[in-house]
Structures are given as structure tokens and as C-alpha cells.
Amino acid sequence: MTPYRRQVRQPILLAVVAFVLGSLSACTTADNTPSASRATPAADALLDPRSFRGASEAQPAATTPPVSIRDAPQLPATVTDHGGATVTITDISRLLALDIYGTLANTVVGLGLGENLVGRTASNTSADLSSLPLVTQNGHGLNSEAVLALQPTVVLTDMSIGPREVHDQLRASGVAVVVLDSTRSLSSVGRQITAVAHALGVDAAGEELATRTQQEVDSAKHEITAMIPADPHQRMRMAFLYTRGTGGVFFALGSGTGATDLIEALGGGDAASGIGIVGIKPASSEAVLNLNPELILTMTNGLASTGGLDGLMRRPGVSDTIAGQNRRVVHMNDGQILAFGPQTGAILRSLATAIYAPTTLEP
Fold first, then answer.
1. CATH code assigned at 168
2. Is 253:265 a contact under the CB 8 Å cutoff?
3. Distance between CA atoms of 263 and 291, rounded to whole angstroms?
4. How confident is the model at residue 231 (pLDDT cuts 50, 70, 90)?
5. Same domain? 239 vs 342
6. Residue 159: CB partners within 8 Å, gap ≥ 6?
7. How far, in whole angstroms, is CA 295 from its chain's centroid?
8. Helix, strand or coil for residue 183?
9. How far apart are CA 292 and CA 304, in angstroms?
10. CA-based nearest residue to 194, from 183, 185, 206
11. Maximum Cα interatomic distance, the chain, rounded to a whole number of Å
12. Measured between alpha carbons, how far is residue 346 from residues 2, 64, 229, 315 in Å?
């Protein structure tokens, strides 16, 4: 077996973003191979994941390919959105799909309507979307003037981005605004895709994209199963920590945030939900020590903003955990790691490779 090389990576200099308290954006990478095309390694080619020391980066998932169905949208489409509003869509020629995760715009691309998008959030930095004008302020705040300047015919959004007053202003200006469910989890992926498709009058494309995405997720989970111990008690204890800057923005993500779903799909045990953490809780020194993860998951931009791996280790309590002692951190593109959209299968594969078969470790 070829030994894994240890290399020192320079800190990734990226735009300021955040999850819940900020926006999400994509990271840059020297590896241009789409992660969706790389299969996870066979189990007999793996080392003990507890033997690794250092940080590894999960490579970004490739751009979502559009579905094969390209029928003309069936309009008008009338929907009752997640907020209870009845909305009739008659024109989808100028779309905005805005959420903190970047999921909605990627879904529109997967439905074959990417050319209809006229703007983006800071989370949408893939090559096919990065040239579109931004409509967000400070990463996660919608700017109504910037939105209206693009003359959208439809705005797809959710409550992860706002404020709500902007949604109301857009409706008052005559824009069709559809508020979708903000939930992000493995079980929500298909529902989110078909909800977007129904609002845009492309139900058949939505069914194809949802089916394809589920097949990719199932395939990724099958491959990951071969990489992890059969005994659940032997699986790595992981925690998703959100950090931003060097101040007090430091949180543990528990059940209900998508972090538990992600960790369990990767074959780990979620340390946060295991001690009863629900939602997002401050990661105090005591809380971090109670978590005592063997591996920390986090976002690439957040890690860079806190001073890289060394900066994270300076956070109270982190260096005293098992993960801290081994500096074992896996990070990924902020706009993908918790997106739970059409790229979910590729994201799981990429993270699993960074956890169980890293080719580069930052000491």
C-alpha cells in the first residue's frame, strides 16, 4: 500500500461568509477533478482513520448537470408556499433562487433552467453562477434594491435568508415570491427539489432530478458503508463546529441543523446530538470538552477566518479534545457541506475520502 503523503497547505484566502450568522461560498482548490467523478476507495486500501494527524480538505462537488427532460414549463403554476401564501407564477424567464446554503440555485441549474437565473447569493460561486450579480449584503442579507434592479419575474427563497421584510417588499412590488422550506437534511432533499420544480412548472424534470439525486446518495452511502466499521461502537465520534473570526462566534451544531444527518451518513457518531444538543449552541470550553470528538467537521472559510488550523486549536477547549490532540479536522466548501441539494451524493463521497483516505494532511 502506498503511504499517504503529508504536505503543508497554505491557508485558503476566501471571501468572508458564514452559516446562519453569515453566508456560504465556495472554496478554491488546486484539484480540478470533479469530486462527483471520483469513487471512494475500497475498504482494503484504507488505513485506520484514527491514525491520521492533521487537517484534510474535502474537494468541492462538481457543478450539477441538468436533467435530460427539457419540456416547456407548464404555466401558470399556482402553489401554496411554506409560509402559507398562495402564489401564481406566469413567467420564469428571470429567476432568482436565494438561500444561505446555495441549494435553490443549484437545484434550478439541475432542472435545466440555469440560464434563467439573473442573480446570486454569496453562496453561489461555481463557475456557471459566479459571474451573476450579487443581491446580498454582508453575505446573508437581501438587498431589495439590488433584487428589484434585476427585474426578476420569480424569487424562490426561504427563511434562511432575509429579512422577511424584504420578501414582503418584493411581493408588494409585484414580484412572485415563493418561500420554501428551510429544512436541510437527507430526508428533505427530494421534497425540496420537487417543490422548486413544481413552482417553476417543470414537474417531470423535478421528478427526474429527485430520482437521480436519491440514486447518487444511495450509491455514495453504499460505498461509505464499506469504509466504516460494522460495529457502531467502533465508529468515529465527530462534531460539527462552526467558527467565524477570532471572537465569540463559535458554535456546536446539533440535531435539527443537518449536522447529525451528515455525520451519520459519513459513518460517524454525532457527538453533539449524543449529549443532547439540539440546534446551534455556543461552543464554550466546557461544551467542547463534553463533546470530545475524535474528528471535527467545519467549513473551509470559517476555518480560514479563525486563523486556520492553529487558530482553531487556540479556541478554548479544542486542543484538549482527542481531535485537537491529533489536529484532526476535515473542512469543506462553506456553500456545499450542509447544502443537501442535488450535489449531496458527490459531497458525501468527497467528505468520506477526506475522512477515511486523505491524500494531503496539513500538520
1. 3.40.50.1980
2. no
3. 14
4. confident
5. yes
6. 82, 179, 182
7. 18
8. coil
9. 22
10. 206
11. 64
12. 25, 10, 21, 31
C-alpha cell of 248?
A: 465569540
Tell me the C-alpha distance between 15 and 184, whole Å: 23
Q: Which domain holds residue 342?
A: 35-61+231-356
**Could you tell me the three cell numbers for 21?**
450568522
Give the three-class secondary structure for 310: helix
Alpha carbon distance 134, 147 (integer Å)? 9
DSSP letter string, 326-342: TT-EEEE-TTTTTT-ST
Q: Which residues share a beta bridge with 295?
A: 238
How far from 59 is each of 79, 140, 186, CA to CA, in Å? Answer: 37, 24, 20
Instruction: Tell me the C-alpha distance between 210 and 205, whole Å.
Output: 9
pLDDT in tens, 184-195: 999 999 999 999
Closest CA to 188 of 113, 129, 101: 101
> For residue 125, what pLDDT is reported?
78
CB 128 within 8 A of CB 114: yes
Checking if the pLDDT of 25 tops 60, the result is: no
Same domain membership, residue 106 and residue 56: no
Query: Residue 207 is placed in which grid cell?
Result: 421528478
